[in-house]
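We store sequence with structure; for instance:
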Amino acid sequence: RQGIKDYSDWPTIPQLYVKGEFVGGCDIITEMTLSGELDQLFADKGVAFDKDAAEKIREHNA
């Protein structure tokens, strides 16, 4: 656990990396999911994801 915190210089876990790039921790990823920003990041980076599941998450948190 400490190793990943040291690697990213980020104090909390879990942490999301996309194509080797640190994106953020849980709070940031939650915000990005709800805003649609994470969908856009995945699309821009060519990462497959379940668009319907992402939309359901947003619907249930509206």
In short: The helical segments are 2-8, 26-35, 37-45, 51-60. The chain has one domain: 2-60. The first strand starts at residue 15 and ends at 18.
